[in-house]
Design goal:
4-stranded antiparallel β-sheet; rod-shaped; disordered C terminus; 22 strands; 401 residues; conserved putative lor/sdh protein from methanococcus maripaludis s2 fold; 4 domains; alpha+beta; 5 helices
């Protein structure tokens, strides 16, 4: 082969190889461009969060009016000394004791009164003897009244002495009764069933009549005096059911006994008197959970109304407003502004801004933004949940992407 032909063949092969290499470079470049273009699309298609869905549920919700107030005794009885000038000998009751009607609370030294009783009995006996003699004289005077044996003046004198002696017997009897009453008052008795809330007496003191020695919560009954604004006072009537929550958390049922006919001129609030009618737990009394002077809160049950409610976990608060995350058919979320109302258990009332058919993110909405994509999964089985939802909560929607 001639050198010119070999040179031409070599050049042709080199040109072919160059073309082949250029083609391979263009192919790799196109594949790289396609991969780079596919990356944003893949990133955009990746969901931001895996969520379960829930929906609003309509139902009858109780209408409740919240209020605050103080616990007070239904009625208090002041137990005071009735005998005057007697020394307190013994105190038989203390603060917090439950007492019965007629139970002895304190006793006074009876010696002085016993001496006065003995003196009154002696006076009565003397008056009785004088009355017997006067009665006999009067009887004899009447027997000889027409015979002239006694003058009319003497007869009248005997009859008057008889009447005077009878009056002295009645006076002596009254004095004895008074002393016996004083003797009875040497024992201070409870006027009613109840609990001792105050003891101001001390052993050895000489009490004057009318001095308060004990204070008694009658029948151990307590009441809740709720303060209600004048605008809401007209919604409450006698007999309205009430639920009162003690400072310790115990809940007691009550019923409105009286609505105050007046409103405080300074606070513009009126008092509602609520009888506490049920103990907080078996074997305990109302007085075990509440004490007079405690501050308690409660709710008046005013009826029921229809409400649309969702789980509290589906509602998020941003910048002072409430929102929910609605999931569309393309599994993208949109932020809806809603107005919330009452709260009952783990659910909150939605007053406006939501439709019953809207699918909502059940929890984790605070991690999402408007327009984010989500992956929807079925809710966890009941036995895997730490806490079962209440019976009134709607089941979460199940949809698998």
């Amino acid at each position: 082969m001639k050198p010119i032909q070999i040179k031409t063949l070599t050049l042709g092969l080199m040109a072919a190889i160059a073309v082949l290499l250029a083609g391979l470079g263009l192919l790799a470049s196109s594949r790289s461009s396609a991969a780079d273009a596919a990356k944003p699309a893949a990133a955009a298609a990746k969901p931001a969060l895996t969520v379960t869905l829930t929906q609003a549920q309509a139902g009858n919700w109780p209408i409740r009016l919240a209020a605050n107030g103080s616990i007070a005794a239904w009625q208090e009885a002041s137990v005071a000394a009735e005998a005057n000038g007697l020394r307190v000998q013994e105190l038989l009751a203390s603060v917090g004791d439950a007492v019965q009607r007629g139970q002895v609370l304190a006793s006074f030294a009876p010696e002085t009164v016993q001496a006065d009783v003995a003196l009154a009995k002696a006076t009565l006996a003397e008056a009785g003897a004088n009355a017997a003699e006067a009665a006999a004289n009067a009887e004899r005077a009447r027997a000889v009244q027409g015979s002239g044996a006694l003058s009319a003046q003497q007869i009248s004198q005997y009859l008057t002495q008889d009447l005077t002696a009878r009056a002295r017997v009645a006076s002596a009897q009254a004095q004895l009764d008074s002393q016996l009453l004083r003797l009875k008052h040497t024992r201070l008795l409870a006027p009613d069933v109840g609990i001792i809330s105050l003891r101001s007496a001390m052993v050895g003191t000489v009490a004057a009549a009318g001095t308060e020695m004990f204070r008694l919560i009658r029948q151990s009954r307590l009441e809740w005096r709720a303060e209600v604004t004048s605008s809401e006072l007209g919604r409450i009537t006698a007999g309205t059911a009430v639920r009162v929550t003690a400072p310790g958390g115990a809940q007691l049922k009550g019923r409105v006994r009286l609505v105050s006919p007046t409103v405080d001129a300074l606070t513009r609030n009126g008092l509602v008197y609520v009888d506490l009618i049920s103990p907080p737990a078996a074997g305990k009394t109302v007085a075990d959970a509440l004490k007079p002077g405690m501050f308690a809160r409660g709710e008046f049950e005013l009826g029921q109304s229809r409400a649309l409610a969702v789980l509290q976990t589906a509602v998020l608060v941003r910048d002072g407003f409430s929102y929910v995350m609605r999931v569309g058919s393309d599994n993208r979320v949109s932020q809806l502004k809603v107005q919330t109302g009452r709260v009952l258990g783990d659910r909150v009332e939605i007053v406006s801004g939501l439709k019953p058919e809207d699918r909502l993110v059940a929890s984790g909405a605070s991690f999402l933004s408007d327009g984010d994509g989500v992956r929807v999964v079925a809710a966890a089985p009941e036995f895997l949940k730490e806490k079962s939802p209440p019976a009134h909560a709607p089941p979460a929607l199940s949809a698998t992407q």
